[in-house]
Amino acid sequence: MRQALQAGCRVDEPRILIVGLGLIGGSLAAALREAGFGEGERAAEIIACDPDAEEIARGIEMGLIDRGGTVLTPLVEGATLIVLAVPVLAMESVMGELAESLASADVRVVITDVGSTKAAIRDCAHRVFGRLPANLVLGHPIAGSEKSGVAASNPRLYVNHKVILTPAAETDPAAVARVRALWAACGAEVLEMGVARHDQVLARTSHLPHLLAFSLVDTLARQDERLEIFRYAAGGFRDFTRIAGSDPVMWRDIFIANRDAVLASLDDFEAGVARLRQAVESGDGDALLATFDRASHARHYFDTLLNQTSYQAEYNMQQSANLRFRASPGGSVTGRIRVPGDKSISHRSIMLGALAEGVTEVKGFLEGEDSLATLQAFREMGVAIEGPHQGRVIVHGVGMRGLKAPAGPLYVGNAGTAMRLFAGLLAGQAFDTELTGDVSLTKRPMGRVADPLRLMGAEIDTAEGGRPPLKIKGGKALKGIAYNMPMASAQVKSCLLLAGLYAEGETRVREPAPTRDHTERMLEGFGYRVHRDGDTCWLAGGGSLTAAPIDVPSDISSATFFLVAAAITPGADLTLEHVGINPTRIGVINILKAMGADLELSNQAEVGGEPVADIRVRYTPLKGIDIDEAQVPLAIDEFPALFIAAANAEGITRLRGAEELRVKESDRLQAMADGLAKIGVEHSLYPDGIDIQGSGKTAGASYGGGHIDSLGDHRIAMAFAIAALRAGDEIVIDDCANVATSFPGFIDLARRVGLSLAQETEKEAS
Ligand code: S3P
């Protein structure tokens, strides 16, 4: 660690003065020492001022500071960076002393602070200096401990912690850069935000929890004068109240200084406690469960953020490391496996389960980021949902009119299906909603759902070009329409059918080609009549749904990567169990069979209105084909993998009529063409398709290796991972974290059948 810190030590300050040598100031000195500050040719010192002479003596003894004293003025001369680490309410008098001693001092001096509230300190600078000095950079390291005093100093206190700087327009950028360098040397991650935002965020995430911990311990201690209760207070009490041991003076100052923001967060908290009190009083188990479930999942999600294992939140996505797949050339494909549950059906099971009367039990639910985003969104709308636990989810339906307004925008991550289906469902609610998503989703077209919904009477705002976020006005009376879909899209069809549940009269959708019909099947399963005549389906609004059990089959779109893996690998013999073979999804089977693949279906059955089968694939050489355009919507998500099959087949495979591929999680035609070019597969790209020249080889390598950018698209990443089975060299694939949106556990399963696949994380910044 020491070396790592040293490597980052770019603190070019001849003398740093720390005012207030407690835990925070002392740890800063300790971290700087650890980073190598003051070593080497150029003399540099750390000095400190503290009203307590013993703290100074201890700091010198511990080797943290070179010297110090109890009076500020004589120490200021010659200091180039002054760090104010005193309690918030002591700031004004310290700044006053500084203002006098600095009048004649070096203009290069930079002042910063570590206070937990920023507006109060900024105001006090205004009072003292008559303005906000350009060399004052307000800051706040988000780190601490319930311990206090210099003796508790910890050189690693700031490692991987955030430091928030709140520079104003008048702050000198060079001064900001020097304060950044100071904290970076301590191993911290430095961020910037406005003063008001800082104070609101900290009131909620730090000040409120401290207030509650102080209050709980005090309340219990008063009730039990002999403190007998603490003898029995283990687990929960201990975990919840650790921070009540923090420095009382420091916290008194914080609450006085950040009064307004703390009061606002306390109001929200009191309202939440009042709701829980009411639920406890009236024995409302559903309300308790809904709150606890939401909180429990939010807490687990927070853990994954802390552990850097999730990328669902956009903030984290921007910060997160590049997850890279490394696929070694060759390998085998044998065995029996079951891939995770169907993404489309999983989304719909939560949506319809939530709107139904009664309890819906879901088995085989896909615990991928996309369907989990849907689940989380319904929790935020007040639906009690248990699980998921090993694919089992229990949804306590609230009925067609039982959803509640969420507290903020609903974030659906990478999930286009969630956003489009939600748009229809939310257009019929009494409350306003906003739908947001990650960077990829924010680029995808939503006009295709917003336009017909507006025809039904919905009021929806989109960003420019019909992109997310979607702002949906509640309380609009919807009327049924007859809609001729301009593109073959199950998402658009489903969106309109869901809006149609809330519309007056009939909602009819005509599709230019058959698209997946899971919404219609599941509605029927929940007792809601959906009619179909040829290319048109319709329903009448105003009905209700009755909960029904759902058994989610394995996702044929995920199975596809293994179907193709086996189809291109000499000697392969693989069985995929319990795969959904809904006729609107089997384009991949039809196309692979047309290419000559050896696929055998067995154990055909129907589960919960959806057909399933085991699929066995054995290697046999493939031939290039002209893909039947009618198969395109039936195989829409399978093309990235099918292009890899084409690259191994004999002759040319031609695809046309597939312009929809350009508006998926990435422009899949372009992304695949770029990747194929990298590994040396000849192809010609067209606006609505591609021609791929296959190698036709029945042994050895069909193409080379290379470094691929998946563009954060899960299916591009998995397609090139299986391509390595026939590559002459390693295939390295960047930006693979989103594989978890549809296929958690892909790497493990791929290894189990015989692929040689590893993953690694690379910090983008390095
Ligand atoms: C889906 C429909 C398809 C598909 C997507 C899931 C669904 O999108 O690509 O992965 O669950 O309805 P389109 O309907 O936009 O083609």
UniProtKB/TrEMBL annotation:
Q: Name one Pfam family in it.
A: EPSP_synthase
For the ligand (3-phosphoshikimate), the binding residues are 343-344, 348, 489, 491, 637, 664
Which InterPro entries does this entry report, sorted A to Z? 6-PGluconate_DH-like_C_sf, Enolpyruvate_Tfrase_dom, Enolpyruvate_Tfrase_sf, EPSP_synthase, EPSP_synthase_CS, NAD(P)-bd_dom_sf, PDH_C, PDH_N
Please report which protein family the annotation says this sequence is part of.
Answer: Belongs to the EPSP synthase family.
Coiled-coil intervals, chain numbering: none
Which residues are named in the active-site annotation? Answer: 637
Q: What is the role of the protein in this entry? A: Catalyzes the transfer of the enolpyruvyl moiety of phosphoenolpyruvate (PEP) to the 5-hydroxyl of shikimate-3-phosphate (S3P) to produce enolpyruvyl shikimate-3-phosphate and inorganic phosphate.
Q: Where in the cell is it found?
A: Cytoplasm
Q: What is its EC number?
A: 2.5.1.19
Source domain of life: Bacteria
What's the gene? aroA
The keyword Cell division appears for this protein = no
What is the protein name given in its UniProt record?
Answer: 3-phosphoshikimate 1-carboxyvinyltransferase
Q: Top EC class per UniProt?
A: transferase
For this UniProt record, the keywords arranged alphabetically read as follows:
Amino-acid biosynthesis, Aromatic amino acid biosynthesis, Cytoplasm, Oxidoreductase, Transferase
Q: Which reaction does it catalyse?
A: 3-phosphoshikimate + phosphoenolpyruvate = 5-O-(1-carboxyvinyl)-3-phosphoshikimate + phosphate
Q: Name one GO molecular function term.
A: prephenate dehydrogenase (NAD+) activity
**Could you tell me which HAMAP family the record lists for this protein?**
EPSP_synth (MF_00210)
Q: In which pathway does it act?
A: Metabolic intermediate biosynthesis; chorismate biosynthesis; chorismate from D-erythrose 4-phosphate and phosphoenolpyruvate: step 6/7
Q: What is its main location?
A: cytoplasm
Q: Where does phosphoenolpyruvate bind?
A: 343, 416, 444, 491, 668, 715
Instruction: Name the source organism.
Output: Billgrantia campisalis
Instruction: Name all Prephenate/arogenate dehydrogenase domain ranges.
Output: 14-310
This protein's assembly is summarised as: Monomer.
